[in-house]
Amino acid sequence: MKLQEKFGIYGIDDERTRKVIYPNRVVLTRGNVAGAENLRKFRPAQVAIYAYDDACVLDNRNSTENAAVLVDFGREIHGTVTVSIWTISTQHADFRLRFGESVSEAITPIGEKGTTNDHAERDMTFGAASWSSNESNESGFRFAYLELLTPNCKVDVRCIAGTLVFRDIEYKGSFQCSDPLVNQIYDTAAYTVHLNMQRYLWDGIKRDRLVWSGDMNTELATILSVFGPNPVVTKSLDLVREVTPTEASMNGLSSYNLWWMLCHYDWYMHTGDYEYLREQKDYIAAMMKRYVTYIDENGSENLPEGRFFDWPTRGNPDQMHAGLQGLTALALQKGGELLRILGESALADECLRTAERMKQHIPETKDGSKQSAALLAIAGVCTPEDMYENVISKGRAPGFTSILGYYRLSAIAEAGQYEAGLSMMKDYWGGMLAFGATTFWEDFDIRWMENAAPITDVVPEGKKDIHADYGAYCYTNLRHSLCHGWASGPAPWLAKYIMGIEVLEPGCKKIRFNPHLAGLEWVKGTYPTPYGLIEVEVTPEGAICRAPEEITVVRA
What we know:
The chain is an alpha+beta fold. Helices cover 32% and strands 22% of the residues.
């Protein structure tokens, strides 16, 4: 008999797994610290009466500086930290535990350089006694800083153990090629989203830890290409719908309803799950009836208050309009297709006619937002070739942003510039990796790299702090998230445009196979479908696509 039956304790299952991990590096110590390297040993966090003689000793006796140690878990994780104490020379001791996605963040006190405890506490104090194990709250971090606060006190620390909290799911999709950097970018993009697949699909594991339907669109593309369908997606889509009346804006942003609808289109195309789509029928219909009214007779969008496309265009109404024009046209196209499948023919036709009318209104794009230009290209309001030549290619990677990076890369590929897209991807996402990233960041500009120190080091005198000195909008300085799902665009982009897998019919029943080496010597990988894996091998001599027998492969 299990606990539920024996004691009548019932609840909701937590789909996540916990795995205890240990630091692989001691970054620094302060004050009187002995045996810090012992923290790298793999041993249970459980304490015992009899201690080993290889503790990490924090000693504030006869010292004017608090003893402290900073450890590195080797990569970004989401989870907790447990500090296990053998003995304390006093009856009780107080400690500070501080998380950091960078070394700089871990050693910076709360309130300085933009550090906050927003959404998940990253800077906390706790009290402990001898023979105790003390576990923190969940947060996103790579580094942990432990400081002994009690004066005239000595503490024997058994371990500082991390607990990785994650969904234990298989990486079904894969990508490998002749360029190790491209392989690393793909794997890092996949891992970035994996960490954000918690109870719900979050935007970031440090901040905001919320379900943003706009952020979800790129995350969903990554999930479908790497993991295949996962219930965290529908669970999160349903949550946003349930808390948003049909006349309201999701997440307070009028464009985010459109991203939610696009997520449903992508989910249905991959899974073919008509029953789940049918559950959304009334909501989608009511929402699209409202959104067609926001397009004037000239085909221009006039979305209501809560207007938002991306952060860089927020202070530029003209470029925000350009982005919203492309996004709205795309959503009306895809929404019309879903409504037709759902049997709402009249409304479907109205959506599709409205989307077509939007091509009559071409916003100004010269010297404008590359992200806005990308959405105009993807939606067919402008041609990808024109947007690439006159907007997107200007300046190459500088000015690139993590948000909507997937769509910018996609517009480049739709213009036939596969090699240029791969090169920009390597410059931009590879730049983060060069500075110590193990997950991709909320934002990044390659100009930040000049005279900067990596996130893994204490910033030397005369160097720029790439985490603390930059950022904008709501993600300034150390508030800036270094694990953000919307930055995962390279994974689905590589699957679609380099491996060449494009879904043409719901449930992956028909796919287009159109690979591009883009200067690579070879490419191989897998793509998950409801019928099993598609396997791809591409060389200059030819391209092979092995698909389950239920799938029709159309070669471009």
